[in-house]
Fold this sequence. Notes:
By secondary structure, this protein is mostly helical. The protein is built from ten helices and three strands. A three-stranded antiparallel β-sheet has the order 1-2-3, with helices on one face. Helix 6 runs antiparallel to helix 7 and helix 7 (172-193) runs parallel beside helix 10. It starts with 7 loop residues before the first helix and ends with a helix.
Amino acid sequence: MLQTLQNDQDAKKLLNFSVKMARSMLAYGAEVYRVEDTINRIYKSFDNIKAANSLVTYNFVIVSFIYDDTNYTTMRRVVLGEKNLEKISLINDLSRKMVMGGCSLEYAFKRLKEIKNKERYSNWVAIPSLVMSAPFFAIMFGGTFRDSIYAFIVMAVQATFLIIANKYKIIYFLSNFLGAFIATVLVMTLAKFFIIQNPVSIIIVSLMPLVPGVQITNSVRDFMAGDYLSGIIGVQAAVFVSTAIALGVVLGLKIV
């Protein structure tokens, strides 16, 4: 069901809403092509909008359309935040409602604000979830049952550090470097005082929360969608983060 913009104020509201939605999706970890497709579909659901376009990279968002022979364009700079697939899913649901004509712009603004303010999982849920997964991954990566117990301890420390780093807004490169360094030093120190058959398996487990898996996956999907610029930027960012992790491990091994 096609919708109709009534006046200039509605056009400005739609422009403001669409750029906020695009910025939020990208900040939460959505692929570039998904963000562009979502915005374009919303614009196409209005019958008196022409020449709708969106340009998205990992650093900025530009949206534009023509209404009543007037060109409306705006841009927002994007600061990538913590990945949150739940919020991406909620925003996708909101965009589908808009495309189907099931909600007004006022409701869409209100709902987008509610999604933005939605609390993530509490620390009492996040830490046990990470800690409980560690023993199984340690065994999968070649560790013994005893190694899995130490993996449990190391992951608890790693999870606590990541929450503290997120709380104090430590830059992504530094937090990954410190996380890898702390985990490596802790594992190798435990190996000096206790019998650990395969300390490497524990180190690998402790690094898993740091690996930019979502970033790499999104970059590959952007390449496959033909968005080569965003794909290259995403790969470079993933390599940069991976280098920080590697430096942390190497420095930790050298010190211990």
